[in-house]
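Researcher: Structure prediction, please.
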Amino acid sequence: MIALDRQNNYEIILSEKFYLADIVESIVLEESLDEVAVRATISLQIPDGLVGVPDIRTGQKLDVSGPLFADKLPFASGYLLRRGVLWEKEREEKSGRHITLTAYDPSIYLAKSEDEVFWPKGSTASQRLRRYAQTWGISTGAIVDTGTPLAKAIHRSKPIWTMIMDELTETLKKGGHMHRPRMTAAGLELVRIGGNSTVWALETDRNLEAASSRESMDDAVTQVKVLGAADGDKRAKVLEVIKNDSNTSRYGKIQKVVQASKANATAEAKAQARSTLCGPLETHNLQGPDINTLRAGDAIYYDGRDLIVISVRHELGSPGKMQIEAGSAGVVRRRYYAQT
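Model: Predicted structure follows.
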């Protein structure tokens, strides 16, 4: 890990022509595996009598740029939020105007929009993501090939983001890897969870200011009942009950149900059931100097553990601060890709 020593030279550009850095009080970028879009919260203070301030309205385009933290010097400059959309504006009248802006990257439209979509058998999550982006006018960057043919699907009146996650979950259940869509300066991309080439090492006694961990049985599963395909009003046949005897003895019976279907054959249902079994899940909350290029879904190395970033909050500045929630790949798989 190299030390970060730079001036606070981040820039906010509104509608690709108004530069607002001189009136910016703070910039916070947040990203989570729970949501597709990066959220930017920007606090502005406009002194009384200042002229030339543009009219700021929701729907305008907003960019955040500055030095991009890397593993070697000098840092390049680039976009941390590109083609964002100003979603909310709050204004407080005081001795000087205080304005808080909330902007999202363009993938917010995939979370806020619903549709009905039919997909034929055999298309992949990568192919479907390209089509979603094309339909919503969102530019694309590098989209990795998930390589797993999916079952025929009819999505009825649900958010596009939900459709995408359903398809990525099906990819994983059929033997693929965990993937995540994310916006970059190049456009909407699809990356493999934990596939980042630069893995930052974070250590309690070296480059972190605070660290804590939490272990919870909320997501524990000690037994899974595998049911056959539904047949009208008849009760589904129990194909198998898969359990972890030691965990059941220690934590009690916490059961989930997995049901086979034409799209989810018996062998696949049983494999899904086995992967669903798990004990209490542990997550870690870390705080330290900001690494502004660290994204949700990236791998990190923390005190001897290989972890995945679940959420990250960047308080941009010099050097800035970051707050991370991280967990093992198993935690991420269970929480986000193992819906039953």
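Model: The two ends are 40 Å apart (CA to CA).
Researcher: Thanks, that helps.
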